[in-house]
Amino acid sequence: MSEYILELRGITKIFPGVKALDNVHFQLKEGEIHALMGENGAGKSTFIKVITGVHEPEEGEIFLNGKKVVFKNPKEAQKMSIAAIYQHGTAYQHLSVTENIFMGHEELYKTGILNWKKMHADARKLLRELGSDIDPKTNMGHLTVAEQQIVEIAKAISTNARIIIMDEPTAALSKRECEQLYKITEKLRDDGCSIIFISHRFEDMYRLASRVTVFRDAKYIGTWGVNEISNDVLISKMVGREITQIYPKQKVDFGEEIFRVEGLSKVGYYKDVSFSLRKGEILAMTGLVGAGRTEVCHGIFGIETLDEGKIYLEGKEVKIKSPLDAMNAGIGYLPEDRQKQGLILDWSICDNITLATLEKFTKGTIINRKKERAKAKELAEMVKTKALSVFDKANSLSGGNQQKIIVAKLLNSDLKVVILDEPTKGVDVGAKAQIYEIMSKLAAQGYGVIMISSEMPEVLGMADTILVMKEGRVSKIFENASEVTQEQILEAAMNIG
Amino acid sequence: MAEQVMKSDGTRIVASERGFSFKRFILQWEWMLVLMLVIVNIINISFSPNYANFTNVMNAMRDFLDKAIVVFPMAFVIMLGEIDISVASIMALSSVIMGVCFKSGIPMGTAIIIALLVGTACGFINGIILVKFKQLSSMIVTLATQIIFRGIASILLETNSVGGFPSWFNQFGWGKVGSVPIILIFCIVEGLFFAYLLHFTKFGRRTYAMGNSVTVSRFSGIKTDKIKLIIFTVTGLMSAVAAVFLASKMGSVRPDVAKGYELDIIAMVVLGGVSSAGGKGNILGTVLSILVIGLLRYGLGLINVQSQIIMVIVGALLIIAVAIPNLKSSIGRPEFLKSFIKKTPAKN
């Protein structure tokens, strides 16, 4: 019997053009809570997918209880009692809690008919054990994020999982909900489960974990006992460099007000959101996931209609009913989900860059391809894309380069205000710094920049003004970002009590 | 191969021109269609000695070109990732209304214009329902309107037919310029226009974009509803145009006219390489596949092959058409060979 219930040695996973994991190690003891930390893009998600059998690694070995195993698909990993709970539930929103819990291993009568009575009863019992009184007959979609996570955990237990992986489970939870999750996690550990806990929050790690492993840039950095390592050292291990390097913020003298919104409201999403922006200013919108930041910006950009509220550009009110109206007025939006909203993955760099601005390349009705390519090349170079030619397909690029292409696409419109929604999400460190550089340049050129971000360091590193949202409302606006601390922002963003 | 220049900071300069690539040229679906066309013609010539004769080929054209009129707009519909199975019913309704109008004493010219308006209105109805109720699929909506349009046609004429059109009206179906049928000339002009629209204009590029992702298109400021509405409306209009040619060819109109045409039309589009998932395809491919299916049907008809058997052959062709592009993209990957041995893990 090995000391470790799960051990991974020398795992390497290569995606076209990117090493997502580079000779990574990991050891999980039986009955421990093991924190896995690292910046976005460090390879944590890929690592989980290797453990759960979604990806097959190119190199490396996985040992379960000292025995070498190979997972060809998620089903095989599930059979070996490994379960993962993801931040964005993979739940069936239209099905009941019971159906979600027993999906794939339903209880049957001998005749082969589903035994609902037993499944409902079992589901209720499982949830009770986790200290929750969710009715198993409710639809998954009616539950809060926290409740959905509890259901996911119940599902994991119902499959007799012994190794449970939790991927940023606390990211969208209030403080009280976090506390409940901590208790459940500890109970699982006491019942003998081994848990890999992924989180960006140090609080989670100190509260729960006994050991912590850090990944950086797809590489294994080290494993420490939580009590052996100080906060500062841990951060430097995760980041691997001085923070100041990656935020190339330029000193800009703000011009006059360029953009202002008053009383933006949409029932059920946000209420009474007002703020203003000057030329050259970078305004960061932050808050917890689900606080309504993206929804507000969708309202401004005309993706969804506003119930109430006014939008002013250079002092004049503009009516925005569609993204085209917004773009004509001079507002550009870099969407949060670059693969679903920003890029046509099957298309070339060139076609993607020019998609929103085809008028610029048409004479009469015919598109001038030569002109189009030349402009695409110019823009792609300006944002420092790494690619062989403008004919390369978007899906052949890394996340960072894809994001640069969308920035290039934005820059081809005549904009005054750019809204960047989580511009560095899932982007590697090098590309991140380049995106920040572009952002600084835009501000220096007199654009108004709005950046939605959940990442505290980038909010503090880039913003002039910080707007914190909480439950669809503006919780606080910090006019002078350089004097704000992380704690103050968190306090404004969190549901205290 | 594109020239590659490294900058001092490691970013590459991207090239904006590319040379001719033989591989890219030869790996086009159109070559497959050319090959099919050759095979179909060899079969036709070897079985019917009179086939390879200009007049006969022109007659053959007249046989299936009324469908081709609808194939081009249908290519746009399928390019969007949608489908319109009501086209044959639109043909029936618009031609029946033309007949009813003519019978009630309205001049033939006016009756034709009314028919075109009816077709346009039918297409607009399909489009507006799809735009206003986004959760409905075009399959279901046009299935419903297919039944409704044909139903109205049957109410108007029951099982009767209307004929006795003025002799000039016969020219649409039977007329020739020199020895070339009028309908062929019309189809060539129409094909060129749609090719121009799809491959050279903003409208075409945006259609491709919507077929790939409506969401990305919306975020890019494209008026997606407008484009969808236009495409469905034009499909209705062109169905009515096809109906006029068909009525002229047959000399009369009946409510059960053009039954099953939608299947041939969709088959021609899909065999032409327009992806049923949307976003891929071109007009050249659809032109070739119109000829493949049309000439195959004609040739097999000449040697008295039963139409049921022809349907089986067309169906088989269609499956090949859908399967080959999938095979093409997996051949060359190691997973392709593995897949014959055991199931591969799902990617992502």
Number of strands of chain B: 6
**Which regions of chain A are unreliable across 5 or more consecutive residues at pLDDT < 50?**
none
CATH superfamily of the largest domain in chain A: P-loop containing nucleotide triphosphate hydrolases
- CATH C-level label of the largest domain in chain A: Alpha Beta
Beta content of chain A: 25-35%
* Percent of residues in β-strands of chain B: under 5%
Task: List the domain count of chain A as a whole number.
Answer: 2
**General shape of chain A:** globular
Tell me what the structure shows.
- The complex is a heterodimer of chains A (497) and B (348).
- With 497 residues, chain A is an alpha/beta fold.
- Chain A folds into two domains: 4-240, P-loop containing nucleotide triphosphate hydrolases (Rossmann fold, 3-Layer(aba) Sandwich), CATH 3.40.50; 245-493, P-loop containing nucleotide triphosphate hydrolases (Rossmann fold), CATH 3.40.50.300.
- Chain A is built from 17 helices and 22 strands.
- In chain A, the strands form five sheets. Chain A has a six-stranded mixed β-sheet, sandwiched between helices. A six-stranded mixed β-sheet of chain A has the order 16-19-20-13-21-22, with helices on both faces.
- The model of chain A has no long low-confidence stretch (mean pLDDT 87).
- By secondary structure, chain B is mostly helical.
- Chain B has a single domain, classed as ABC transporter involved in vitamin B12 uptake, BtuC (Orthogonal Bundle), CATH 1.10.3470.
- Helices cover 70% and strands 3% of the residues of chain B.
- Chain B has 15 helices and six strands.
- Chain B has helices spanning 22-26, 29-47, 54-79, 87-103, 108-132, 138-157, 171-174, 182-200, 202-212, 214-219, 224-250, 261-271, 283-302, 307-330, 334-341, and strands at 5-6, 12-13, 162-163, 176-177, 180-181, 252-253.
- Chain B has a two-stranded antiparallel sheet with strand order 1-2.
- In chain B, strand 4 (176-177) and strand 5 (180-181) form a beta hairpin.
- In chain B, helix 3 packs parallel to helix 8, helix 3 (54-79) packs antiparallel against helix 11 and helix 8 packs across helix 9 (202-212).
- Mean pLDDT of chain B is 86; it is low at 1-10 and 342-348.
- The A-B interface holds A 49, 53-56, 72-74, 303, 322-324, 326-327, 333, 335, 340-344, 346-347, 349-351, 355-356, 358-359, 362, 365-367, 373-374, 376-377, 380-381, 384-392, 409 and B 2, 4, 9-18, 200-203, 205-206, 209, 212-213, 215-223, 279, 343, 345-346, 348.
